[in-house]
Fold these 3 entries.
Entry 1:
Amino acid sequence: MSTPSAGIWRLAVVGGGVTGLSAALQAIELAEAAGQRIAVTLYESTRRLGGKVQTLHRDEGTLELGADSFLARKDPVMRLCRKLGLDREWVGTGPQAKQTWLVADRQLHPFPSGTYMGIPVWEEGILSSPFLSEQGKRRALMDLEMPDGSPDGDESIRAFLVRRFGDEMVDRIADAVMSGIYGGRSEDLSLLATFPEFRVMERTHGSVLRGMQARLANAQAAATSAPLSRSIAMQGKAVGTGVVPPASVFLTLRSGLETLVEALESRLIALGADLQVGVKVSSLERQSVSLRETPYYRVSTEDGSARDYDAIVLATPAYVTADLLEHPEVSAQLRAIRYASVATVLLLYRAKDLASMPQGSGFVVPRREQMTVTAVTWLSAKWPTSLSDEVIALRAFVGRSEAADIVSADDDEIKRQVQEDLAVLMGDTIGEARPYDIVITRWPHAMPQYDVGHRERVQALLGRATQTFPGLALAGAAYAGGVGIPDCIEQGEQAAKRLFDERTVRADS
């Protein structure tokens, strides 16, 4: 086989979600910028690209079945949108969606203004909180005077927050927000892999509350001083021009988030990438070569074909990657990463059948409430320009790491339990109305769990994988402190860059 500096660099990307698509595009752009020839093949086992990004287009409007937005403050997705010409498609949350609600004693209560991950930032917010007893409020405010008690290593989110704020703050407020993001239990989730900024706040400011206050003040100052080149705000939407993001914490795309996937697909095809959709990789074999030659990989697919590649990006879930690598140690470490299953339940009502909706984007449900739904988004308020005014759309989330049975239940059972919870929590609004359609989307084993010690284990895993499989990179939500679209984009781009840099070093040596 020829050396890396000669001929075409052959790269395979396994996995056609946002991570894999981003890796493929990054690799092509890096090679072209360096004047090198590259051939990229992307394999996706299902019949569609995009992974957990899936948009449903109906007469009523645009509805997301998976991820429904991304954080505007995260640069990887903003940069990619600009590159693909999607910055004019940015849509901010509606004006009615500023309020979030929390379930306490099976009733909805508005979160106070000025919160960070659900925790009131200011003393006044804690003192006026309807969720805490007087004793709980006093205990939470002890954070202002409590010395740094953090251990040298990792700890669970729950252990950290209980130490700083007490059990009530965690059980009644923080657990619902933080566990909801990852679908796991706060007593299992790693602080350093999920919210490492809390540790920094404790050590830098001597108080998490003071750290959150400083962070919020800095964010507000940056928002008011940023020179917006041009933005249009109308009917609850903000459209950016690509110079700076519109003033909304969360953004989506006017035609749905799957527009991002379609734009990536189109760009890759235009650049000559070979997209093998509906083709499942069955095995991956590192080929034996002499010491003077560069190792390469043979990728075999279930249809019986096989191709050889200089490098591989595996942008598949950790348990799929484990089966492909078939290495005792590395595969065992990959299989040790737990996953939670979740489902989304989209309920469509006729607006005329419902009473006035509460102001807000939706609500979250603490585990202590022992309800099926973990959160509900009021889509008609959050994304008003995406839906007809004649429709009220709600999206309920079900499934937790410790209670995944509901995800595998039949449709009728899921519908029954979700509607029972909504009748309790939103009875005055829903009344006797029934949804005219319900769409259930299951996401089995979709949410990697960042258990305590996750960051250190992943570092060891990636180091071992790099040593054992030169020219191969692992990418995806399982390996980084983030499960959102921007995090997956960044993972894919970093994987492609590492392989490109390795090739460059080999060519120069």
Entry 2:
Amino acid sequence: MSHNSFGHLFRVTTWGESHGPAIGGVVDGCPPRLPLTEADIQPWLDKRRPGQSKFTTQRQEPDQVRILSGVFEGVTTGTPISLVIENQDQRSRDYAAIAAQFRPGHADLTYELKYGIRDYRGGGRSSARETAMRVAAGAVARLVLGSAMRIRGALVQIGPHRIDRNRWDWAQVDENPFFCPDPVAAQTWETYLSEVRKSGSSAGAVIEVVAEGVPPGLGAPIYGKLDADLAGALMSINAVKGVEIGEGFAAAALSGEANADEMRMHDGLVEFDSNHAGGILGGISTGQPIVARFAVKPTSSILSPRHSVDRFGHDIEIVTKGRHDPCVGIRAVPVGEAMMACVLADHLLRHRAQNPDAPTTTRLPRN
């Protein structure tokens, strides 16, 4: 299986399966002399960790990360940083019944058709368990970006229920099990998702990730666009079926006048009156907050019987048992943040390599 790496100068490779002995990753290209310990990574993993509420899978994994290389006396050395997390709560027996069956909505069939073999225990490599290493890599990426850059994510929709943006409060994100910035919507979601969970079904979600303090100039024209790389990174997350930057698909309903982000000079800096573009123009960051959203489909593992086939060509009816998230989008919030961080760290290093003297603000070079 190829294509287990992403990034250019800041490059991340992950390995491991859902029910294997461990999962791990290698972060290559991290600059030297950055302070780094397990304690810098663990808080981000704790945000993604399963079993923290009744609205996520009850698999109990401490997700304790160990740094195996690339750090000496508490700082990075510039060599590859190897990370590992031991799997401790596998229940492979839950999947014995589907060893020769293909679950609708899962990657079972496509893995079988492509490789002729698959790890049916929790989906193996296709499991969302793999995303823990993305979160660990994202923690390293945040150190590369520095404290001036802030990346935050929030759930803005579960099923048909959206937040009221007039009630958006970042402080609320850590006060409920949904990463929800709207306390009223969080209460609605609790009732709604409790009913979904009891019925054995699942729900989809939309996550919004915002990066503030991003300098202008990240990204490159045509094939190195920042939004293209960001969209690809977010689209690579398990169960994601759509990505948009800024207004995204809603821009199609706007007029040219409404969609244009008008500019003015203020104290020698270029300032924008709006941010419909989501902080990126021509594939290059504008200095405004970068705003991206991604849609996560309903968890495919449900208790309702579904029609499918087995590997012997028989029509069957299948019920997926085991421990599953009624809304996998909840734990996708820290994963989206991590992928945003990794992409920005990669582009920041690429930008510095080509333009070491480039301005870090929107002050015009000739001004």
Entry 3:
Amino acid sequence: MCVGCRERAAKSDLLRLVAVEGSVVPDPRGRLLGRGASLHPDLACLDLAERRRAFPRAFRLAGPLDACMLREHLEGRAAPRP
């Protein structure tokens, strides 16, 4: 289930995320240790998740988490390739 839009989707359609040292890190290969959360690889879902403060709940951590690395990853995917 996507933590942003809360829609169910196939695991292959979602991007796995992991909290590492106060940051939300994308884990496309699914090999990082720790509790994972899933998100559609879409900036709209990321915005929804941040607005709903879904990341601390999904990772069961207190306080805000930095999603800059995740945003950069998603923006890089959205950029057209020459």
